Amino acid sequence: MRLREALTAAASRLAEVSDTSRLDAELLAAHLLDIDRNSLLLSHLDAEVPAGFLTLVDRRMTSEPVAYILGHREFWTLDLKVLPGVLIPRPDSETLIEAALKWFGPRAPATILDLGTGSGALLLAALSEFPEAEGMGVDQSPMALAVAAENATRCGFQARVRLCAGNWGQGVDGPFDLILCNPPYISTDAELPATVVHFEPREALFAGGDGLDGYRVLAPQIARLLSPTGCAAVEIGFDQAQSVGALFRDAGLAVDVRPDLGGRDRCLILTKSL
To answer: For a 10 Å CB count at each end of the chain, is N or C smaller?
Structure first.
């Protein structure tokens, strides 16, 4: 069997657990061949099936996320390491970087804070766009901080990044020109795909019965830490703009809602009220 036949067979199997079964199979094969997916499709479809391919397909059949199998995930313009126990960066979260870039325009923040930094995705993406800025990432997970440190080095930003163990903004001194945060915002009663709920860290997903527990803590902290001339970009669930926005307005912040590429509410831009 050549690789093209193996990919077709694997995609047929993976269709039971994945809506992107062909893509999954191609990414797994490219990983084993140490090439990118485009190279696989252009010049390797008639190659021999790489050793270990069926093993990786079997892992994916358990609903294990492709990013954990591969050990990395692209976010913004960066290729980031990810491990089980650390939330996988989502394309929707890139909305926060786009919103921050639009808000600052020709200006640039000098200091950036990422609360709940996880893999460091938001912080490192922002630093890639603001090359003169320095950043701090805070997370309560030692594993997440270790992965974020490795990603900072991987991206060449280690000299511009400080990582700290902590509970959101507690004990952090500001002000910061740009604050980024993708907190857990899913209700504990919500049903999630097996690929998420059985593999990704629950503490990075769930936030109480209404999904707002994290925001209740963050609202006064962000109001305290934000520079008078800066902004915060905070991720929300698609149906949370009104409820989360009210919490930040009560903390004295002005709120603007930004949509993701699908047109769903995804980001709040927060500023000091004038």
So the answer is: C
239-272 confidence digits (pLDDT tens) = 999 999 999 999 999 999 999 999 999 999 999 9
Indicate the residue type of 176. F
Q: What does the alpha-carbon distance between residue 25 and residue 34 come to, in Å, rounded to a whole number?
A: 14
108's tokens: 């640039």
Quick: pLDDT tens for 161-210.
999 999 999 999 989 999 999 999 998 888 888 888 889 898 988 889 99
- 22, 64 contact by CB (below 8 A): no
Tokens read off for 193: 């795909």
**Where do the domains of the chain lie, and which CATH numbers do they carry?**
3-62 (1.10.8), 76-272 (3.40.50.150)
CA-only gyration radius of the chain, Å: 20
How far apart CA 27 and CA 9 sit, in angstroms, is 14
Nearest to 93 by CA among 204, 254, 223: 204
Residues 6+ apart with CB under 8 A from 43: none
Closest CA to 236 of 209, 215, 206: 215
Which class for 242: exposed (0-12), middle (13-18), buried (19 or more C-beta within 10 A)? exposed
Structure tokens at 94: 């890139």
Largest CA distance in the chain: 68
Pair 253, 270: CB distance under 8 Å: yes
Distance CA 104, CA 114 (A): 17
Give the predicted TM-score (pTM) of the model: 0.94
Each residue's pLDDT tens digit, 127-175: 999 999 999 999 999 999 999 999 999 999 999 999 999 999 999 998 9
CA triplet 193, 197, 199: central angle to 5 degrees?
A: 115
Q: In this structure, how many other beta carbons lie within 10 angstroms of the beta carbon of residue 157?
A: 20
